[in-house]
Design brief:
The complex is a heterotetramer of chains A (171), B (100), C (644) and D (511). Chain B is 76% helix and 0% strand. By secondary structure, chain B is mostly helical. The longest helix of chain B is centred in the last third of the chain and has 30 residues. The radius of gyration of chain B is 17 Å and the shape is elongated. Chain B starts with a helix and ends in a 14-residue tail after the last helix. In chain C, the strands form two sheets. Chain C has a two-stranded antiparallel sheet with strand order 1-2. In chain C, strands 3-4 form a two-stranded antiparallel ribbon. With 644 residues, chain C is mainly alpha-helical. In chain C, a hairpin with a 2-residue loop joins strand 1 and strand 2. The chains are: A mainly alpha (171), B mainly alpha (100), C mainly alpha (644), D mainly alpha (511).
């Protein structure tokens, strides 16, 4: 087994394990914290895939912003009772079976994929010479300008929405 | 080299764990967290495709997914807060407002 | 064309009376109707003369219904048979119209009475003058309608309203057959006109028709169906039940409609269809047997009745039986002859009894129709008594009175009619005995002996006014002398003038008996008439205690007869009640209510309960929706993956 | 194909007649005053009848072709046209509708006092829809009118009806709608089978395979049988009649339920002759059952309107019997009987409505001895009672006689059975009359006899009863060529003189 494969094995095992920890923790705070660890692992996996930019925003946005938001909410709601109660729904076995089904089906699909499109021209060498951030920036502002703009709109809506929803009603 | 399929399988497994969490947990915050987990699993496969197919589109997609995830988390948690103000519960199986 | 006025005059009178009677005419209604019907009578006489001169009038006035090959006109046929009927109908109508001026005087519905009566005359004239079966049917139903109105004239009395309805519905049973007969005639002959149908009758003879899986002679079937109608209208067994009840109507109505004219429509119709009946021995025998049996059946009931009008009503049924017997043995002209004489003496009987009822009513007597409460009226009402006697002599067949001639002719023809004929002759002779008995019983109970009501009432009994007695005298004249148009050839060579007159339409009766036979029959009929008279005389004048003794002795028989063989009860129990009950409980309650409505309301309520069940699945808990959605998506993915 | 556009009148007379009430309804929107609304409505309905009079004058009684045709393209891409015209079968219904509309307005003069404007608008809209059904020669147009009819009727019953009006209205709507939807499916199938045309005449002249005919026949049958209503589909009728306001009952009995039978004549018989022949025996049986069953059920009724409603079931049994006898007498009798039933039952409902205004009860047991209290009313009532019984001299007789003649010609057993309906009919009608007008006179009850307006309302119907009774040729003349043509075509298509020729082996009494 080569070194990259060993690295990958480590990440695969730990990501799977961390995921399981995330979804099974009783205390949401613990779940969020395990999630944080998980995100760091994923960011490293991105580095492995020559996606430095993604690794960066994974840490900055996901770990830094979204998870903190989650933590805030958990703290705000101050759910003490949660720890003493059931953590799963009554129907959890069905969920388990469904999830297992998903896993089997998806793996089955993926195994079947044999034909791939022609590789594009963004080879590793090119990426390394031009720089990952540069390429993404160029593509994002040219070819994918419209989706990019829409994304900004979505974010705007989300901001306004969040403000409106959480605002206290004026009597 | 690590074969592409390894990444994909990892992605599939993590996605399924996300689904598992989504379907099993009662706490709505954990449900949201499971959704994030699913999104991340997809991100892994997108990034892997991008790398192996030497195409930048995959990374762009990840970028977009992350922004959408951010928006989703913000709105979702805001709804949760607003809801909690009226009904002090966030148990997924106790909320039945959809019932006519 | 002027003869179209014969029915039209009464129709016009009807219109005027019904439209303006209530407001304007009121008590002067007879000034409209009486001239109209007398006008009809005069025209009828002129028509009779015309026919006597050898003319037969057959005109179509206009096309009534035309549909495909089916064409029917409104048209009139005046031949000897019609001419005789015209005379009978218009003359008796005229007299009864006049009589009613006195009898109905002061009644609240005076104008209405004359209106209906005029409508009746119109309908009856249409019936006899029609030149096709559908118009005959029209008249047939229209007289039934008038009968309905007139029986129920005092409609606020439940019994009267019931009787009217009963008459109409029982008649409908007969008309049901009659209507089908008419339809079958059209389908067989392709026309409903008399001349065409009778002209082609022999072509159809022997043909059969598949009916309910049986092959029946077409002609036989037609005749039997037509005869159904006659049975209903002429109150023969088993549809006779309406006629006695019809006596709820005013007495002039009973006289005109339920004795002299309408009820004889059946006889007229069968005689009219003689070319068809001649071809079907089965139908002929049926007619004869029904007639003979009815004659004796009704006579037995009449023996014990106490209501003066009911006795006469049963007597009418019995006499109608005679007429059918005559028709059935092929002696059509004898049947019509009896119809003609019967019209006069029976109308007279009714009117005279009406005179009695009228007098008693005005005297304040409450049970005015019960003979057991009468008696000794002879000295108070001499005119009525005399005409009553004349009518009775006629009906019982005492020689030299008109009833003798016609009845004797029938008995003679029946006697000649083979084995069945002999049997029927025996029945008829027996019925004649009974006729004599109950007729004289009626006279003795009503006019002889002592008055059995209160003295105060007796004081107030007076002879009826002139407007009543004059028509009585005129009818009495008819009752005595009407028979002289048909003297048996044995007495006078060319005596059977009516038979000769009718021969072009009705033909000559078959068979000739010996003189000995004829004399034997005449002797027997005179003998039974006298015997009946004698028995009545002994029982009700000499030994007045005898009736009670006999009644006690033969209690069950008396009860059976008194209750008219319980036929009304039988119909009520087996037909009317079960039908009403089935209608309510089975059809409306169960079938409509449960089964059909069950399905109709069941489908929506099933859907409602089904969706109520479905609603329970919609818990509103979003996680369960998510679960279902996930499973659904999984199924789709799995299907895409594993489906070959 | 007979495409010669016949139109004897150079202006679109049919369109004017059909849409005049609709225009009137729009006009009514701007009128406030209740009595002005009534007068306007009366004027519009009368104007409709007056506008239709030229049709009588210029109607060609010698041809079976569609007359007064109007054809305009509407949605050409789907083959939908505005195509209208009338023949000898539909012309009489036009007049019946126009007449009964006037009478409906008149009879509602006093009895409708709430939401007068809305009531008259509904009435006028319905008139347009009904007329539209009778003139349409394009399936699309036809279906629009057919369904458009339901809405105003639903409103009339549901708003101005009696106590259980909502139940009755919903039942009426769902019942008839369920049938109509199946017909719509049938129309769509025809559209695709008939080279994408919705022209009724073109579709009628086509031949379809037997199995398809049977299915289509059943689809149309569902719509028509409910409307007629034939025997097992009749239970909406008593409820709807009983609860509807008088005008609603009159329109319902007078013309609405005629559309089912009209549909059989216009669509089922020309389009699906083989299927008609195949289903003739079941339909005959249903008709006879309807006649006898409807009559028997009448005996158990305690409500005036309900009794008349059930008698409608019986009478409409005669109509379907006549139509499916498929000989001249039967069909002409059937059409005539439809008109008669419209006249007689319409009149009976009118009269019941009039007395109801005075007594506010419909229970038969609440009446009695009314012949003394309201003699004119009683006198007019009995005319219609006897017309309903089918007494010769009235219109009912002509219709029933022709039908029984036709039915007897087609199949003796059913002819005989149908004739028993006449006995029963006399029974329940006379019993009704006796209970209401004769026995049980109640002292001190004061009810006004009918007034001038009401006499005017009834007079046309009385005249028609006797006119048809004594001179039915006046109406029969209109329909001869159309009916003859219908039957000739049918016989040519099915190669048989008698509709029951296929059942000879069964020995059921057929020829």
């Amino acid at each position: 087994m080569t070194l990259p494969q060993l690295f990958f094995a480590y990440f695969a095992v730990s990501i799977t394990g961390l995921s399981l920890l995330v979804v099974t923790r009783k205390n949401p705070v613990h779940g969020v914290l395990w999630m944080l660890v998980l995100f760091v692992h994923i960011a490293m996996l991105y580095l492995f895939l020559n996606a430095e930019f993604l690794a960066a925003i994974q840490i900055i946005i996901y770990a830094g912003a979204i998870l903190v938001l989650f933590l805030f909410v958990v703290m705000l709601l101050n759910l003490r009772v949660e720890e003493t109660e059931r953590r799963f729904q009554w129907s959890w076995p069905v969920g388990l079976v469904a999830a297992g089904g998903y896993a089997v089906s998806l793996i089955f699909i993926l195994v079947k994929i044999t034909v791939f499109p022609q590789p594009g021209h963004y080879t590793i060498e090119k990426m390394q010479t031009e720089g990952n951030l540069m390429i993404i920036g160029k593509v994002l502002y040219t070819k994918y300008l419209l989706p990019f703009e829409i994304t900004s709109l979505i974010l705007l809506v989300a901001i306004i929405g969040a403000v409106v929803l959480t605002k206290k009603k004026q009597e | 080299m690590v074969p592409l399929s390894w990444y994909i399988m990892l992605s599939a497994v993590v996605f399924s764990i996300g689904v598992l969490g989504f379907l099993m947990r009662r706490n709505l915050i954990m449900v949201f967290l499971s959704i994030e987990l699913m999104l991340n699993s997809i991100n892994i496969s997108l990034a892997a495709f991008s790398h192996y197919l030497q195409s930048i589109t995959g990374q762009i997609m990840v970028f977009l997914v992350i922004t959408v995830a951010a928006a989703e988390a913000a709105i979702g948690l805001a709804i949760l807060m607003a809801f909690y103000k009226n009904n002090p519960t966030i148990k997924a199986d106790e909320i039945n407002l959809l019932k006519g | 064309m002027k003869y179209a006025l014969i029915p039209l005059l009464p129709l016009i009178a009807f219109m005027i009376n019904i439209l303006f009677g209530r407001r304007y005419i009121k008590d002067k209604a007879h000034w409209v109707s009486v001239p109209a019907v007398i006008g009809s009578f005069i025209l009828a006489v002129s028509a009779f003369m015309d026919v006597k001169a050898g003319n037969v009038i057959n005109i179509d006035i206009y096309n009534w219904i035309a549909s495909g090959s089916f064409k029917v006109a409104i048209g009139f046929l005046i031949d000897p048979l019609t001419a005789v009927m015209l005379i009978v109908v218009t003359s008796i109508s005229s007299l009864i119209f006049i009589y009613s001026i006195g009898y109905m005087h002061g009644d609240g519905g005076y104008y209405r009475f004359y209106a209906y009566l005029s409508l009746f005359v119109f309908s009856m004239l249409i019936l006899v003058m029609a030149n096709n079966f559908l118009l005959l049917y029209f008249g047939w139903e229209a007289v039934g309608l008038c009968s309905y109105f007139l029986i129920g004239f005092w409609f606020h009395k439940k019994s009267a309203a019931d009787a009217g309805k009963k008459a109409f519905i029982v008649n409908r049973f007969g008309d049901f057959g009659f209507g089908l007969g008419v339809i079958l005639i059209f389908l067989t002959f392709g026309s409903l006109e008399y001349t065409h149908v009778f002209g082609h009758a022999s072509v159809i003879a022997g043909k059969t028709i598949n009916f309910f899986g049986y092959d029946v002679g077409t002609i036989t079937l037609i005749c039997l169906l037509l005869f159904c109608g006659a049975v209903g209208k002429s109150a023969q067994l088993p549809l006779h039940v309406w006629l006695p009840d019809a006596m709820e109507g005013p007495t002039p109505v009973s006289a005109l409609i339920h004795a002299a004219t309408m009820v004889t429509a059946g006889v007229f119709m069968v005689a009219r269809c003689n070319p068809l009946f001649d071809l079907s021995p089965v139908a002929m025998n049926t007619v004869a047997v029904v007639g003979g049996v009815t004659a004796i059946f009704a006579a037995t009931i009449a023996l014990v009745q106490n209501d003066i009008k009911r006795v006469i009503a049963y007597s009418t049924i019995s006499q109608l039986g005679y007429m059918f017997l005559a028709l059935g043995v092929g002696a059509y002209s004898a049947g019509i002859f009896h119809l003609y004489t019967h019209a006069y003496f029976k109308a007279l009987l009714f009117l005279a009894s009406g005179s009695v009822i009228h007098a008693l009513h005005h005297a304040g007597h409450h049970d005015e129709q019960n003979m057991q409460k009468m008696g000794g009226l002879k000295k108070h009402m001499p005119t009525t008594y005399i005409v009553f006697i004349l009518a009775t002599l006629s009906i019982t067949g005492i020689p030299l009175f008109s009833g003798f001639f016609s009845k004797d002719e029938i008995l003679y023809r029946a006697f000649l009619g083979g084995g069945l004929g002999k049997f029927l002759w025996f029945l008829a002779a027996l019925a004649a005995l009974m006729t004599a008995f109950y007729s004289w019983r009626l006279i003795y109970l009503t006019f002889h002996g002592k008055f059995r009501g209160s003295d105060e009432h007796e004081h107030h009994i007076h002879e009826s006014p002139k407007v009543i007695t004059i028509p009585l005298w005129l009818l009495a004249f008819g009752a005595v002398f009407a028979g002289y148009v048909g003297i048996p050839p044995i007495f006078y060579e060319h005596g059977d003038r009516i038979g000769e007159f009718l021969a072009p339409v009705l033909g000559h009766p078959l068979g000739h008996g010996t003189h000995a036979e004829e004399i034997f029959v005449i002797a027997v009929s005179i003998l039974v008439a006298l015997a009946g008279w004698f028995i009545a005389y002994t029982m009700y004048l000499k030994k007045t205690e005898l009736p009670q003794k006999l009644e006690a002795r033969f209690q069950p028989l008396h009860k059976l007869l008194f209750n008219k063989y319980y036929i009304d009860e039988l119909y009520s129990k087996t037909l009317v009640q079960p039908m009403l009950r089935a209608s309510d409980k089975i059809f409306l309650g169960f079938f409509d209510g449960r089964i059909i409505e069950g399905v109709v309301n069941g489908v929506p309520s099933f859907i409602a309960s089904f969706s109520r069940g479905l609603r329970r699945i919609q818990t509103g808990v979003f996680s369960s929706y998510a679960l279902v959605m996930a499973i659904g998506a999984l199924c789709i993915i799995a299907a895409m993956v594993f489906w070959k | 194909m007979e495409s010669t556009a016949l139109n004897q009148i150079d202006y679109p007379i049919l369109s004017i007649i059909v849409f005049m009430p609709l225009a009137g309804a729009l006009l009514l929107l701007f009128i406030r005053n209740a009595s002005a609304v009534r007068w306007t409505s009366l004027f519009i309905t009368c104007a409709g009848l007056a506008a239709a009079l030229p049709i009588i004058a210029s109607f060609d009684k010698t041809t079976h072709l569609m007359q007064f045709q109007e054809a305009y393209e509407w949605i050409p891409s789907w083959g939908i046209n505005y195509f209208i015209g009338i023949d000898g079968i539909s012309v009489l219904f036009i007049f019946l509708t126009l007449l009964l509309s006037i009478l409906s307005v008149l009879v509602s003069w006093k009895s409708v006092e709430t939401k007068v404007k809305e009531f008259h608008i509904a009435l006028l809209v319905m008139e347009t829809a009904i007329l539209g059904v009778f003139v349409s020669l394009d399936f699309f147009l036809f279906y629009i009118f057919w369904e458009a009819m339901l809405v105003p009727m639903f409103i009339l019953i549901g708003v101005w009806g009696g106590k259980d009006r909502i139940y009755a209205a919903v039942k009426f709507f769902l019942y008839t709608f369920a049938g109509s939807v199946l017909m719509l499916v049938g129309i769509i199938v025809l559209y695709y089978n008939g080279s994408a045309t919705l022209d009724i005449l073109a579709l009628s002249s086509m031949r379809y395979p037997f199995t398809l005919q049977c299915w289509l026949f059943l689809a149309f049958f569902a719509a028509f049988a409910v409307k007629v209503p034939m025997f097992p589909f009749h239970t909406w009728l008593p409820d709807a009649h009983t609860e509807a306001p008088t005008a609603g009952s009159v329109i319902l009995a007078g013309v609405l339920i005629k559309m089912g039978a009209y549909g059989f004549l216009r669509f089922s018989i020309p389009m699906f002759p083989d299927a008609v022949k195949f289903f003739a025996l079941p339909i005959f049986i249903l008709s006879v059952v309807a006649i006898i069953y409807g009559a028997l059920v009448c005996f158990a009724q305690k409500d005036l309107k309900r009794l008349i409603a059930y008698s409608s079931v019986s009478h409409m049994g005669f109509v379907t019997l006549g139509i499916f006898a498929l000989n001249t007498q039967g069909v002409e009798g059937g059409i005539l009987q439809m008109l008669n039933h419209g006249i007689i039952t319409g009149a009976l409902f009118l009269m019941i409505g009039m007395i109801y205004e005075r007594t506010h009860t419909r229970a038969i047991s609440d009446y009695g001895g009314f012949a003394r209290i309201v003699p004119w009313y009683a006198g007019i009532f009995i005319i219609f009672v006897f017309a309903s019984i089918g007494l010769p001299g009235t219109n009912g007789f002509i219709g029933e006689f022709l039908i029984i003649l036709g039915a007897f010609g087609a199949h003796k057993l059913f002819g005989v059975l149908a004739a028993t309906g006449i006995i029963l009919g006399a029974g329940y009608m006379l019993w009704l009359y006796q209970r209401v007008f004769f026995e049980g006179y109640k002292e001190g009850l004061s009810v006004h006899d009918i007034n001038f307006r009401e006499v005017v309302t009834l007079l046309p119907l009385i005249i028609l009863v006797f006119l048809i009774g004594f001179y039915p040729d006046a109406l029969l003349d209109f329909m001869h060529p159309s009916v003859e043509h219908l039957i000739e075509e049918f016989r040519a298509d099915t190669n048989g003189k008698n509709i029951f020729s296929q059942y000879i082996g069964l020995h059921l009494g057929g020829r």
